[in-house]
Amino acid sequence: xxxxxxxxxxxxxSVCGPMHKYCKLPCQDYxxxxxxxxxxxxxxxxxxxxxxxxxIGAKVICNTLVDLLANCSFDDIKKTVCHAIEVARKKLIRHxxxxxxxxxxxxxxxxxLLGVACYKGQGCFFHIGDGAGIALANNNYDKFVASRPxxxxxxxxxxxxxxxxxxxxxxxxxxxxxxxxFLMSDGLTNFAFSPDFSRIEKGFIAPINEFLNHVxxxxxxxxxxxxxxxxxxxxxxxxxxxxxxxxxx
Length: 249
Fold this sequence. Notes:
Layout: E1 9-15, H1 18-22, E2 29-34, E3 40-46, H2 54-69, H3 77-94, E4 113-119, E5 122-128, E6 132-136, E7 144-147, H4 166-169, E8 171-176, E9 180-184, H5 186-192, H6 202-214, H7 218-229, H8 232-237, E10 242-248
Antiparallel strand pairs: 1-10, 2-3, 3-4, 4-5, 5-8, 6-7, 6-9, 9-10
Helix pairs in contact: 2-3
């Protein structure tokens, strides 16, 4: 039986980075969440700027994971995540823009993925590539669980679910008894963490968390989050697209 997660509050926003605006390209990030299943599921994906159809790849993986994980057994979360990624890859093989209809062709849809599944006090991040997740309780910013970014040999390189060896890059991080979750694309990780990712930058995370905890209007919350991600300072510090999804469990 489906048990809607009516008590979970979610606020999310994506903004196009200055570089994409300059090149007249759309925001390549995408996010999706589901409050109607027995599990709370949220996913953020960053379409590769170098990929012709990165935004489509990001949308396909988010939608597929949310759909297939919403009512799965939490005990089988690892297996179901892997199955959902395989389904998303097959969708891209059949996609009308994949002219070769081959696995090689899906690299044109390259995207990272970062998601979370929560069920009755248990939670799990699942992650390929960069971006980052944070889980914490009682506004304790010194004690948190993080799913940190993974890059290649160079900081500008990362991993995508469209790669043949995607399973080698898929990471799971389990946690319990948290009440706040942040999911963010790569455009925000340098705002949210210290350079070595050992500490949360409280000057960024804490004010956002405090505001979203107390604002009553969903429209006001989304508008404020958009404005925060789109300040001149944010644009200057990182020219990439920026997505932040916040959830209060």
